[in-house]
Automatic annotation (TrEMBL), chain B:
Main location: membrane
Compartmental location: Cell membrane
Domain ABC transporter intervals: 11-250
Topology of this chain in the membrane: Peripheral membrane protein
The species this protein was found in: Gemmobacter lanyuensis
Protein name as catalogued: ABC transporter ATP-binding protein
A molecular function GO annotation: ATP binding
Entry keywords, A to Z: Amino-acid transport, ATP-binding, Cell membrane, Membrane, Nucleotide-binding, Transport
Domain of life per record: Bacteria
Length: 221, 258
C-alpha cells in the first residue's frame, strides 16, 4: 500500500472544525480547572481538617483513576444522579475541569510550600498581619512559582482532551478517527492529526522552558 | 515614642529556657539586661543558642520558661505551655537575617514600603520618599526599581537593613548578617551597621567576625551551652577574658584566623 497524504486536503475543513472544538474545550477547562485547582490547593494547605481532608480525597480520586473512566462516569452516571440529560460538551467540560482542578491543585500546593519558612520570619519581623502576609507575600510568590508547571498542565490537558472523542464529541481526534474509518487511511490521517497536536503543543513546551528559567532566576533571591 | 527612663533596661531577659522537642535544650536559663544605647554582640560556639536568642527577642520562637521585657514593659512570657508575645511591642524591633529574606517578587522600593503602607497606613508617596532617602544614605539609590535577584549579596543585605529601618525600630537585631556573603562584600554591609551604631541605634547582633565585633560592640556576651558564660566590655571579653571557657573559645577563633 502506498501512502497518500493528498487525501487529507479534502478533509481540511472538517479537521479545522475539530481543532476549533478541541481548542475551545481546552481553553474552557484550563480556565475553570485552574481556578478550581487554586481553591483546592488552598484548601489542602488549610489547618482545618474539615476543609483539608475532603479536598485531599477529591484530588487523590481524580489523580488515581484514568481520565477516560472519569469521562464515562460523568457522561453516563451524572445524568442518572442529577436526573437531567447533559450534552456531551457539558459532560466533557465537567470531567476535564474536575481533572484539571485536581492536577493544578497539586501544582499550587507544591508552590505554596516552596515559599520558604524564612519569608514568614521576615513577615513577622516586619510586623505584617496575617492577611498581608498571605495576599502580598505568599500568594504572589506561589503563583509565580506555579506558572511553568501550570503551563505544562495546560499542554497535557490539550493532548488528553483527545479522550472526549470517546463520548462522541467532535473534537480533532474524533474527526480524525472518522476520516480514517471512512477512507481506510489510518496512517496518513492519524499522522496528520498527531502533527496538528504537535504543532500547537511544541511551541508551548518551548515557552515553558524559557519561562521556567526566568522564574527560577527571579525567585532565587 | 515613649521615653525610656535612663535607669531602665531596654531589654531584660530573665531565666529564658528554649528547646525543640523533649530532648534538645538550646537555652537553659539565660539572663541578659541590655541598657538603652548599648550595642551588644553575642559570640560563642555554634549550637550555643546565639541565633535562637535573637529569634526569641524578635518574637519568632516559642519559649518554655522565662520572660522578656522591652522598654520596661512585658513583651514575651511563658505561661504554661503557651508563649505570650505582645505584638505591639514586637513592632518596635527590627531584624536582619543571614539569608537576606527579601521578597523576591517585589522591587527594592516595594520591599521597603510594604510594611509601612500595610501596617502603619503610611501613604504610598510618603513611604516611597522615605524609602528613597534611606536607599540614598546606603548608596543604593540606583537600585530602587531593581528586583532582589539583580543585586549582589552585599546590596541585598543593605536593602534588608534599609527595609527594617523603615519602621523606625528602637532595637535592631542582626543575625550573622555577613556570614553568607563573599568576603569582598562584607565590608559594605559592616559599614552600614557601623553608620547606624554611630547614630546611637541600639543593637544586638550575632557575628563570627571578631574584628567587627570589637569595632561595633559596646558590650560582648559570650554564650555557650545555652547560658551566658561571660559578659563585659569588648576589651575584656575579646581581649582578656576572665572565664576559662571564653579564653579557650577566643584562642581557638584567633588561631583559626591566623
Amino acid at each position: 500500500m502506498e501512502l497518500d497524504f493528498s487525501i487529507l486536503l479534502k478533509f481540511a475543513d472538517a479537521l479545522a472544525l475539530g481543532l476549533w472544538t478541541t481548542l475551545k474545550l481546552t481553553v474552557l477547562c484550563v480556565a475553570m480547572g485552574t481556578a478550581l485547582g487554586f481553591l483546592i490547593g488552598l484548601a489542602r494547605a488549610s489547618e482545618n481538617a474539615l476543609i483539608r481532608i475532603p479536598a485531599s480525597a477529591f484530588v487523590e480520586f481524580f489523580r488515581g483513576t484514568p481520565v477516560l473512566i472519569q469521562l464515562f462516569w460523568i457522561f453516563f452516571c451524572l445524568p442518572l444522579v442529577l436526573g437531567v440529560e447533559l450534552s456531551n460538551l457539558a459532560s466533557a467540560t465537567i470531567a476535564l475541569t474536575l481533572y484539571m482542578g485536581a492536577i493544578t491543585s497539586e501544582t499550587f500546593r507544591a508552590s505554596l510550600r516552596a515559599v520558604g519558612r524564612e519569608q514568614m520570619d521576615a513577615c513577622v519581623a516586619l510586623g505584617l498581619p496575617r492577611s498581608v502576609q498571605i495576599l502580598h507575600v505568599i500568594l504572589p510568590q506561589a503563583v509565580l512559582r506555579a506558572v511553568p508547571t501550570l503551563l505544562s498542565n495546560c499542554i497535557s490537558l490539550f493532548k488528553e482532551s483527545a479522550l472526549v472523542s470517546a463520548v462522541g464529541m467532535a473534537d480533532l481526534m474524533f474527526v480524525g478517527q472518522n476520516i480514517s474509518n471512512n477512507t481506510a487511511r489510518p496512517i496518513e490521517v492519524l499522522t496528520a492529526v498527531a502533527c496538528i497536536y504537535f504543532i500547537i503543543a511544541f511551541p508551548l513546551t518551548r515557552l515553558v522552558t524559557r519561562i521556567e528559567g526566568r522564574m527560577l532566576r527571579k525567585l532565587a533571591a | 515614642m515613649t521615653a525610656i527612663p535612663q535607669d531602665a533596661a531596654l531589654v531584660r531577659i530573665t531565666d529564658l529556657h528554649k528547646g525543640y522537642g523533649a530532648h534538645i535544650k538550646v537555652l537553659r536559663g539565660l539572663n541578659i539586661e541590655m541598657k538603652p544605647g548599648e550595642r551588644v554582640v553575642v559570640i560563642g560556639p555554634s549550637g550555643g543558642g546565639k541565633s535562637t536568642l535573637l529569634r526569641v527577642v524578635m518574637g519568632l520562637e516559642e519559649i518554655q520558661q522565662g520572660s522578656v521585657t522591652f522598654a520596661g514593659k512585658p513583651y514575651i512570657s511563658a505561661e504554661g505551655s503557651k508563649t505570650r508575645i505582645d505584638t505591639e511591642q514586637r513592632k518596635k524591633i527590627g531584624m536582619v537575617f543571614q539569608h537576606y529574606t527579601l521578597f523576591p517578587h517585589l522591587t527594592v522600593l516595594q520591599n521597603l514600603t510594604l510594611a509601612p503602607r500595610k501596617v502603619h497606613g503610611v501613604s504610598r508617596s510618603a513611604a516611597e520618599d522615605r524609602g528613597r532617602a534611606i536607599l540614598a544614605r546606603f548608596g543604593l539609590d540606583a537600585k530602587a526599581d531593581a528586583y532582589p535577584s539583580q543585586l549582589s549579596g552585599g546590596q541585598k543585605q543593605r536593602v534588608a537593613i534599609a527595609r527594617a529601618l523603615m519602621l523606625d525600630p528602637q532595637l535592631m537585631l542582626f543575625d550573622e548578617v555577613t556570614s553568607a556573603l563573599d568576603p569582598e562584600l562584607v565590608a559594605e554591609v559592616e559599614a552600614v551597621i557601623l553608620q547606624l551604631a554611630s547614630q546611637g541605634m541600639p543593637m544586638m547582633m550575632v557575628t563570627h567576625d571578631m574584628w567587627f565585633a570589637r569595632n561595633v560592640a559596646s558590650r560582648v556576651i559570650f554564650c555557650a551551652g545555652g547560658v551566658v558564660v561571660e559578659d563585659g566590655p569588648p576589651e575584656q571579653v575579646l581581649g582578656n577574658p576572665k572565664e576559662e571557657r571564653t579564653r579557650e573559645f577566643i584562642d581557638r577563633v584567633f588561631h583559626i584566623k591566623g
